[in-house]
Amino acid sequence: MRGMINLIRMHRWRLDEKSREIVEYEELVDSFVHQGELLEDELKAEQVAAKDNTMASLTYGEYANSIIQRREKLGSSISQVEQQIQHAKEDLRLIFQELKRYEILKKNQDEAALEKANKLEQSTLDELGIELFRRRDQH
Fold this sequence. Notes:
By secondary structure, this protein is mainly α. The protein has one domain (2-111): Helix Hairpins. The protein has helices spanning 2-52, 54-138. The longest helix has 85 residues, at 54-138.
């Protein structure tokens, strides 16, 4: 019985850890999305500056290419992290299933132990009742 309790405790801990991992991945995706938005804002500001300044317009093309590359890297990073999220969610689902199996098994064991104890108690009470009946008949 003690082993089952430890298994359940371990699986709950694994479930919590995996949930935290998923949250960290999701926060990372949010951070990448935010970085992409900042890049877009920066690119728009540079477009405005390039219109107003001929020197800035000469270097704008190279700058825009670097922003596009950074945006592509962010997109690639987001895809990779989203794949990790999917794998982690699958792991979470499997851990949860295992945890539920152990909890159900423990519940069944507890119910069987309770039923056994109740039967033993009932048997003892029956014997006591029979003995009291015999004693009363003898007197």
